Description:
This protein is an all-alpha fold. Helix content is 73%, strand content 0%. The longest helix has 29 residues, at 15-43. It is elongated and about 65 Å long.
Amino acid sequence: MDELERKAALNPLSGESVKHNTKAIYTIRSVTSLIFGVTAGILGLESYYGFVFYLAGTLFVSLLMFIFLANGSPKEYFMTSQEIWTRDAFTGLSSYMLSWTLFYGLVDA
Length: 109
């Protein structure tokens, strides 16, 4: 048994399933960052409170994905166990800021 076969036997993840799981994380983070931005704008959060709200929301979503999406063991669905916590965590920041400022301006105006 060569090295590649041994790794495949120890870690039976297929490339397609990992790609699908990664895409699911990206979609969840994109949608929730928009929702958090709308919420922060409606609440009228400013400055650091808005960014703390985003970080808290991202951690909360990561926790929910860890519990419900990965059933408490992300190593079975991703290449590393940290991916569910760190993968695409800040890609939604621009969407968050856009929706945050838009709804802040609409509510404040």
